[in-house]
Amino acid sequence: MQLSGDLLLSLQEVDRRLAAKREELELVDAQLEAQAEIPVLTERAEEERENAIERRAHLARLETDVDALRQRVDELEERIYGGSVTNLRELTAVEEEQTSARRELMQAEESLGPARLAADDAERAREDLAATLEERATTWAETAPGLRKQSKATKSEVETLEAERAESAKNVPAGELALYDQLLFRRKGVAVARVERGVCLACHITLPLKESSRLRRADALVTCGNCGRILIPS
Ligand SMILES: [Zn+2]
Hints:
It is a single chain. The chain is mainly α. The chain folds into 2 domains: about 1-25 and about 170-234, Helix Hairpins, CATH 1.10.287; about 25-165, Helix Hairpins, CATH 1.10.287.1700. The protein is built from 5 helices and 3 strands. A 3-stranded mixed beta sheet has the order 2-1-3. A hairpin with a 2-residue loop joins strand 1 and strand 2.
């Protein structure tokens, strides 16, 4: 029993190191996975660029329309007030045309403001995203080689510890190993606890005399009545 207890304690030590290493590997790999963000950002930057071009083109078209309409209104006014039209019917027709051209001009001028705002917003969004992308890409280029190296090294350390774990577990009786594995999972990495002066060092509860004497006799595996961990006499 004493022998088995020592085996379980050393197994627990390997498991503790293995868990820490696995956690480290997970953290490094999570950082490596963040690179997936770059193609997504690149795609979004391209969309923002296209949007900015579209907005700018729309604004330019609107400005051209406004210029043409202004010119048309001026021409019609010139005809009305310049005295070149003498026929009343023709004058009425020109006046009607001028009224409708004015209305069109007003509408076109009203949409100029929102179109300018939209073009400016699109340009700002494009600039912001382009800057973010450049920053991320630079950071990524700087950190990626180190992270890849660290991931590879940590992975190999995990594999070494896994082999060590398998080796340590081989010598533990199957029933005890099953209980140990169950406790390791349920008790967050601490399945085995030492007992000192009748106190379980994991949960700090004084063991009942019956358990204490069973532990001293050490003819079977004794677990803590409070936390359930496998007890090892000191
Ligand atoms: Zn306990």
